[in-house]
Structure formats: structure tokens, C-alpha cells
Amino acid sequence: MSYVYEAVARPVEGTMLTVIREMAEYIYGSWNKFPDFNHLMMSSYEILKKSLQETRTKLAILEKNNVVDAGAKGFVVFIEGIIDFINKRNIKEIILDRPVTESTQVFVEARQDNINFRYCTEAIIKNCKTDKNTLSKTLEKYGDSVVVAGSDQIRRFHLHTDSPAELFNNIRSAGTIIFQKADDMFRHYQTANERNWNIALVTDSTCDLSEEFIDRYQINMVPLNLSFGDNQYLDKVTMHPEQFYSLLDEADDYPKSAQVNENTFINLYSHLASHYDSVIAIHLSDKLSGTFFSSCKAAEKISREFGKPVTVINSRNLSGSLGLIVLRAAKAIEEGFTHDQIVGLTGKWINNARILVSVTTLKYMVRGGRVSAAKGLIARILNINPIVSLDNTGKSIVFDKAFSQKANMRKVMDHIRKTSSGKTIWNYIVLHANNEAAADWYSKEMEKLTSLKPVSVVNISPVVGLNAGVGAASVALLYE
């Protein structure tokens, strides 16, 4: 048990740790008194039950509420399942026989004011160069509930934090980060206890909408996967745009992106379907990622299981134009539109969305394999700066080009003025890849044209920016 206690930065008695320790001590002291493991496990159950009940008095908050610790109760239920299997040897019979609810009162911190940190974060570090104690002290600077376990070859940690991206940027020299997880506990709490509407809205991290709107409309954003060599990150969660663009030119390995897998969506949709009447998911173009197809497969399974609509929509867009489509859907939910009405309207919004990206160089597209080295060389020699957009199927295209970024930014605005004649711009988003000067210029020009401030001015998502590159700037707009 000393190993378990050493792994936890601040072990607290009266929790699951106490119950596990007392069971382990009983087994260690009594193993030679029983003919086999089965009898030993069944005997230890009485110790477990006694230890669980005693958690009521070991922590002040449990004693005040006259309840047992939830984690300890969960461990006891787990052991009960093992004992049931020992006795019955039939999994199906155990599932059918076990009661759906338990009468024991447990303490669960379910109030928002008890969520001290937003993200429940885990990672696995391969060939870790930092010892356990040093890593544990580093992690404690970023949050609480710190657990560090494993060896130098494979080290795993857990903590609750508000700044996973800052943390992972700090420890990236500790070894190779081969796995990361960062669950949004705040959004999970809202889903279960503080839903503002009956329709859940889902998108992915290529949706470049400010965090203010993501939180205001309780949008569930699923991060795509990013990798620098063998180091794995979660787009916008454990890797923020500012950090990404700093690394883009420094790192030996050019970053790659990967779609969200089906299981991630199954877990999310199962959670949402347990609390909402329906789910609408709007994703980046299926021509740019397989994320849409993973989402569709998961939605079909969960919709069938829960008997609730889970609709997945191919936006044929990304970045700011995807953000505007998602924002319109969020506002429609707020205004009381039905699930089917919103799904019907998205087709119009998708057709009316545009994005134009002013790229300073093709070198990032060459490094990422989107453009051949020969074309990249010609563009560099001629100082060609392309304007990248999407066609009506959602495929990336070179829309136009110029011989400087200023010139192609002016071309972008000329095109917007021309195509906006006789139309009303609902709103727009200005985006940039660490190029605030270009973003400011676009914002002023668009405000002159529309008399509107931009919905958001944001740093482009790393998954988008790995092709657009540092210095890119963009305008996304949505017509009425």
C-alpha cells in the first residue's frame, strides 16, 4: 500500500484510499488462514463494509451530511461484483439479479462551486527524464488531485487543472507524451445539472469560435488529435494556438492531425443522450477529415440505444465559417426552435458561409504534403501568396493569388465587397495565425463594410494552422 500512498500527492484518510488499505492489510495478515483465494475474498467483504461505514466519521463533510465516501462506495460495489462472480460464475445472471439502485447514501460533490479546477487531466510519459517527486511538485503548481505512478520507462499522472495546455507545454521536455486526456468537468456538470436548453450542440475543435460563445451556449467541443513526432496533444485543450505556432518552426518533426475516433463520440453522445432530448453535431468538411464519419457511426448507435435523435451535419466548412454556422444553430436553440427546424435551416446557413484565407507562404503546405515541393519552390521564387478557400463540396482550393500578403488581403476584401452586393452579411469572424496586425486590418475593413464588429477575433485552430502556417489571416462570413 505504500506505493499507492506515494503515488498520491496529498493522500486523505476517510476516502477510497482508506478502504483499500484496510482491505489490503486484512488480506496480507489473513491469507494463510483460508484454503483458497475465493474464501479469502468473501471473508474480506465484511472488513470492506465496516470500513465503508466508518468513512462517515473520518471526514468532516461526510459526517455533516451523514453519508459515506462515493469513491469508497464505488470500490465496494466493484468488489461485490467480483464476489458475485465467484459465487455464481454467470455474468448474465449477475447483471439481471443486481438491483439498479442502492439505498446507501453517498457523498458526491455535484455543485458547481465545488469544481475547483475545470479539466480532469491524465497523461502517459514514455522514457520520463523527471523523477516522481519532481514531477509531482510541478503538477501541484497547476492544480490538485495529483497522482503520479509508474517507472521512468512509463510514467502516468492524473490531476485537476484549469490550464492543461500550459502544463503540457512546461513538461514537454520531460519525455515523450504518448497519451493525453482532459475531460471538461464543468461542462459535464452543466449537462447533468444546469442545462439551459433541451437540445445539446456538438462541434469539433476546428470550429474557431471564441471561448466566450462556447461557454455561453454550452457547446460541446471535441478536440481533434495533434502530434509532434511521437508527442500527442489535444487541439485547443492541451495545445493552444499560441503555443502551436511557436513550436511550428522550432520542432524537428512537422505536426500531423488525426480525426476524432468513434469511441470518443460514443462516450460523449451517451452522456448527452442521458440528459438532453436530442443532440445536433456540426463538423468540419468531410473532405478534410474523417471526423464527420466517426461522429455519424457513433450517433447512429446512440440514437438507436436511447431512442433519441442524434443528428450529425457535414458543414462543408471549417474554422471561422464553421464557427458562424454553429453560432447560428446555438442562437436558434436559444430562441426555441425545434430539433428538426434547426437541422432544416443548417443547409441554408452552410450554403451562405464563406471563408477566405490569406497565406504568406506555401512552405507549410509543402511540409504538410498538401502542395508539391516543386510548386512550393516556384511560389517562393515568384513570391506568390495564395488565397485559400473551400469549394461548394467542402474541398480546399486556391481561390486566387498575389505577390504579397497585403495585395492578397486587398483582393480578399475586393471579392467580399463584390459578392456582398445586394446581400446582407449576418456577421463575420476574423482569424489569424499569430498575426494580430493583419487581423486588425481585416476587422477595420469589415466594420466599414458592414457597420458590425466581428463576432470574434481568434487565433486559428492549430489543426487548420498547420497548413495555413504562421502569419496567415482570414475572414469568415455568413450571409443572411
Quick tags:
single chain, 480 residues, alpha/beta, Alpha-Beta Plaits, Rossmann fold, 4 domains, four-stranded antiparallel beta sheet, 19 strands
Characterization of this structure:
- The longest helix has 19 residues, at 70-88.
- The radius of gyration is 26 Å and the shape is elongated.
- It is α/β, with parallel strands linked by helices and 480 residues long.
- The chain has a six-stranded mixed sheet, sandwiched between helices. It has a four-stranded antiparallel sheet with strand order 4-5-3-6. The chain has a four-stranded parallel sheet with strand order 8-7-12-13, sandwiched between helices.
- Mean pLDDT is 87; it is low at 98-111.
- It folds into four domains: 2-107; 110-185 and 229-254, 2-Layer Sandwich (Alpha-Beta Plaits), CATH 3.30.70.260; 195-224 and 259-351, 3-Layer(aba) Sandwich (Rossmann fold), CATH 3.40.50.10440; 353-479, 2-Layer Sandwich (Hypothetical Protein Tm841, Chain: A,domain 3), CATH 3.30.1180.
- It is built from 20 helices and 19 strands.
- It has helices at 2-7, 16-30, 37-54, 60-65, 70-88, 91-97, 132-140, 164-170, 185-193, 211-216, 241-250, 262-273, 291-306, 319-334, 339-351, 363-367, 373-382, 405-419, 436-450, 462-468; strands spanning 68-69, 106-107, 119-126, 143-150, 154-161, 176-184, 199-204, 220-222, 225-228, 231-234, 256-258, 278-283, 310-314, 353-358, 385-390, 396-402, 425-432, 456-459, 473-479.
CATH class of the largest domain: Alpha Beta
* Rg over C-alpha atoms, rounded to the nearest angstrom: 26 Å
Gap from first CA to last CA: 64 Å
Name the beta content range. 15-25%
CATH architectural group of the largest domain: 2-Layer Sandwich
- Which structural class fits the helix and strand makeup? alpha/beta
CATH topology of the largest domain: Hypothetical Protein Tm841, Chain: A,domain 3
Instruction: Give the number of DSSP strands.
Output: 19
- Name the poorly predicted regions: 98-111
Q: Would you tell me the overall average pLDDT?
A: 87
What's the overall geometry? elongated
For the sheet with most strands, the description reads:
6 strands, mixed
